[in-house]
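quick one before i forget lol
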Amino acid sequence: MEENSATRDLTLARDGDDTAFTRLVEPLRGELHAHCYRMLGSTHDADDALQDALLRAWRGLARFEGRSSLRSWLYTVATRTCLDLVAARGRRALPVDLGPASDHPVIDDAPLSDVAWLGPYPDKALTGGQAGPAARYEQREAVELAFVAALQHLPGNQRAALLLFEVLGFSAAEIAAMMDTSVTSVNSALARARRVVAEKVPSRTQQQTLRKIGDARLREIVTGYSTALERDDADALVALLTEDVTWSMPPLPHWYRGLATVTDFAVRVPLTGCGSWRHLETSANGQPALGCYLWNDAAGAYLAWSVNVFTLREAYICEITSFIGPEHFTAIGLPASLP
């Protein structure tokens, strides 16, 4: 029945019925959006790419001959759209990509506006998706910060090949057709991409770590972090961190590594130098996160400041990535202010 309905909608869409086209693509919109994010490293860019891809698909629907599934064809259009954007805009970065860690707190760090920064991805946008038997990554693993950041170090064709094969489970032959190249070229791109990703991504994913930690301990960690900042409690904060912890804050270029340096930064900046904090628990990139709100006298409210995404090892925080800017709150579905 569903197949007959889809066939009918496809016929109607080819005849110019945009409502039928919407019905066809709506079940795939979430997974296509996640694919665009993995390719581009930005929710905003993913929004633009998906909108452009669906417009291209709508205009080119008459050329869809049905030799592959509609899903495969839409992934072809979305991937090529993203490759155009990658070629035009380059890769997105985190502060750790720009230079070594700072050995002392930079009090008046200024944002860098000429860098395209990696951004967080809202977990609410994730869907189960469909993956073939070749897929190696779960959908949440495939948006973890370490993985998406590693993808940004790959040329567009390698990035696309890796995602299509190991996240979505398309075969090398299908990918070759999608990217208008040879199976040999796809396999070569996959081999190069795997080497880079293996160097940059920990062997244990955050999903594996979170399952091992358990929900109770995870709540302790996240609540403990927010309480420590709200109470200016450096000792409580330090107790949650690994010895080699890192803290970065895009779009600020400086970042910090090691418990001593991170503690010094925390004491001098967020704990004593910023004012009063409030927090809302959330998740992003398949990882625990907090929406951090800073008191503003003029507004008489706590205003959205940063979305902090935590990377965990064992039962401790080993990375804090603070994505500064109220635009991240909108994407994740958090309010812009707290009373």
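fyi Strands lie at 241-249, 252-257, 277-284, 287-296, 301-313, 316-324, 337-338.
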